[in-house]
């Protein structure tokens, strides 16, 4: 990884360093900051380039093997891979910038949630993805996921555009434990899949969130992953009793309920981070919940945040794959150029963007993409002269007029006030970066909306069992495959399918829409 102080302005020295390294170590893979992230601020440029160089050998070997495997099966279509920004690129293009893939999995889930939102005419969506080790939350506004220019990956600052995501160590495998002061904690340590929760056939000895779900009667021990393997409720209860209930002098069911409350508080905080801390009211959104564990816990979280509605997709366990199918081809370009906004020449702005577009156009056309399919979106990063960080302001592609500077200044003041609650109209504004996002809009899978078939869903009841909701309830268990559009049910209820389980709490109502989604209506406090 090579990062020199001013390479974002002049790349010649970094390129010369690569030549010198090549003379000494001919087979070295050299990654330059001027290619990875050609923008101001040497520290994030350095960390991003270092991470890029670190992951590149592993990623490139993987992409190469995958491409060879596809060829061996005579699959000659190009391979596209998801990026953190919610767009896809060819495997070949990503070999030089694999750092842009780091949040690709969570990004796919948010794209899928946005797609569900558009299908159901919900343009303000909170995406909630809970799996075995983590819970991830994102936000969709006006039908599109929100983008941030940088994000933190562990200890590393990655300065590439990414969907706005919050991730915490809370999943089905998260381990419950008691700290030195005698307080119950959940995670971030996880039992993973091997050995897994205590209730697994060859599970570990420590209690997890999944064990608590089993002890509460929310999960069916005989129908986990569609019955492919059976859970051991006795082992779950024993682990909770030994490690949590007995030390805290609680009943086992109270300890299990406590585990759910603790993990829920962490997930509620994650949802607050993507809404309240961004100036958004979660009560104005719907929650799209997916992942193997998301539908189990989503209704409880929505109740806590007074989110009015929860949507459970038809196949929540593999919902992120839908996000991959609806992603557009996309690449972000950036060029740093300092100037006082008032002193710039609008024609110079046009010239710089035209130059960036020419590079993007050539790259996409070289992949066999027709010119008319390619769409460019422009933005400039602006900041007040007293600031160190900037905000993007959209720029029209053509027809820039001399008074465009006034419009950009007004737009920046408005965006700044929306983000931070204030504007500084007495301060000068500086232009820092030119940004270009190039897209190819791909066709989205069409899902036919089915007509309603009546409210009664008694024919979908497969069993009844005791489930704990601040007390034991005789709870109907529904087979999701037998639920039809228009069916309605009241909580408490449990809906089972191969890839997940949906829990509807007392006081909540649910129905099936024309796309097969479960819509849970949250009615605030329970009666």
Mean pLDDT, to the nearest integer, reads: 92
Approximate helicity band: 25-40%
How large is the share of residues in beta strands? 25-35%
The best one-word shape is globular
Rg measurement, Å = 26 Å
State the distance separating the first and last CA atoms.
60 Å
Q: What is the β-strand count?
A: 25
| Helix-and-strand structural type | alpha+beta
Contiguous low-pLDDT stretches (5 residues minimum) are none
Largest sheet: 9 strands, mixed
Output the number of helix runs. 12
Give a verbal description of the structure.
There is one protein chain. This protein is α+β, with helices and mostly antiparallel strands and 527 residues long. The protein is 32% helix and 25% strand. It has 12 helices and 25 strands. It has helices at 12-24, 33-36, 42-72, 91-94, 104-119, 209-215, 233-248, 252-274, 294-305, 319-325, 346-365, 404-420; strands at 80-82, 88-90, 125-130, 135-141, 144-145, 147-148, 151-153, 156-158, 162-163, 165-168, 174-178, 184-190, 286-290, 309-312, 329-340, 374-384, 391-395, 429-440, 461-468, 472-479, 488-490, 493-497, 500-504, 509-512, 518-521. Strands 3, 4, 5, 10, 13, 14, 21, 24 and 25 form a 9-stranded mixed β-sheet that branches. A 4-stranded antiparallel β-sheet has the order 15-18-16-17. Strands 19-20-22-23 form a 4-stranded mixed β-sheet. Helix 7 packs across helix 8 (252-274) and helix 8 (252-274) crosses helix 9 (294-305). The termini are far apart. The mean pLDDT is 92.
């Amino acid at each position: 990884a090579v990062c020199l102080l001013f390479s974002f302005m002049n790349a010649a020295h970094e390129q010369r360093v690569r030549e010198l390294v090549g003379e000494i170590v001919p087979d070295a893979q050299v990654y330059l900051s001027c290619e990875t992230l050609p923008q101001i601020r040497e520290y994030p440029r350095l960390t991003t380039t270092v991470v890029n160089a670190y992951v590149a050998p592993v990623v490139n070997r993987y992409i190469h093997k995958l491409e060879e495997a596809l060829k061996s099966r005579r699959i000659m279509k190009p391979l596209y891979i998801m990026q953190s920004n919610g767009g896809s690129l060819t495997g070949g293009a990503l070999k030089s910038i694999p750092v842009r893939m780091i949040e690709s999995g969570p990004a796919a889930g948010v794209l899928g949630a946005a797609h569900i939102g558009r299908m159901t005419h919900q343009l303000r969506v909170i995406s909630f993805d809970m799996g075995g080790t983590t819970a991830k939350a994102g936000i969709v506004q006006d039908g599109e996921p929100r983008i941030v220019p940088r994000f933190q990956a562990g200890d590393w600052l990655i300065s590439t555009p990414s969907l706005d995501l919050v991730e915490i160590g809370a999943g089905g495998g998260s381990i419950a434990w008691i700290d030195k002061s005698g307080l119950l904690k959940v995670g971030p340590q996880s039992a993973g899949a091997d050995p897994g929760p205590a209730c697994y056939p060859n599970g570990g000895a420590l209690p997890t969130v999944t064990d608590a779900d089993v002890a509460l009667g929310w999960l069916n021990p005989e129908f986990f992953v569609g019955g492919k393997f059976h859970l051991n409720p006795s082992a779950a209860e024993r682990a909770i009793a030994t490690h949590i209930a007995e030390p805290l002098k609680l009943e086992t069911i109270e300890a299990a309920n406590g585990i759910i409350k603790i993990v829920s508080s962490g997930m509620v905080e994650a949802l607050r981070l993507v809404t309240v801390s961004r100036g958004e009211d979660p009560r104005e959104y719907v929650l799209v919940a997916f992942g193997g564990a998301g539908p189990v816990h989503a209704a409880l979280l929505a109740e806590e945040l007074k989110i009015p509605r929860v949507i459970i997709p038809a196949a929540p366990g593999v919902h992120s794959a839908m996000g991959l199918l609806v992603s557009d081809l996309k690449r972000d370009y950036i060029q740093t150029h300092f100037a006082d906004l008032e002193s710039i020449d609008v024609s110079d702005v046009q010239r710089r963007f035209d130059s960036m577009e020419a590079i993007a156009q050539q790259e996409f056309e070289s992949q066999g993409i027709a010119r008319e399919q390619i769409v460019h979106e422009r933005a400039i990063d602006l900041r007040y002269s007293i600031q160190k960080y900037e905000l993007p302001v959209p720029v029209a592609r053509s027809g820039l007029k001399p008074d465009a500077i006034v419009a950009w200044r007004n737009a920046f003041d408005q965006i700044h006030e929306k983000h931070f609650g204030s504007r500084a109209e007495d301060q000068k504004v500086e232009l820092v970066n030119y940004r270009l996002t190039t897209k190819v809009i791909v066709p989205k899978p069409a899902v036919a909306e089915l007509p309603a078939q009546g409210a009664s869903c008694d024919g979908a009841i497969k069993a009844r069992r005791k489930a704990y909701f601040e007390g034991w309830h005789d709870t109907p268990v529904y087979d999701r495959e037998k639920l039809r559009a228009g069916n309605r049910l009241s909580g408490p209820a449990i809906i089972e399918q191969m890839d997940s389980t949906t829990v509807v709490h007392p006081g909540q109502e649910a129905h099936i829409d024309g796309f097969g989604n479960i819509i849970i209506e949250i009615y605030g406090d329970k009666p």
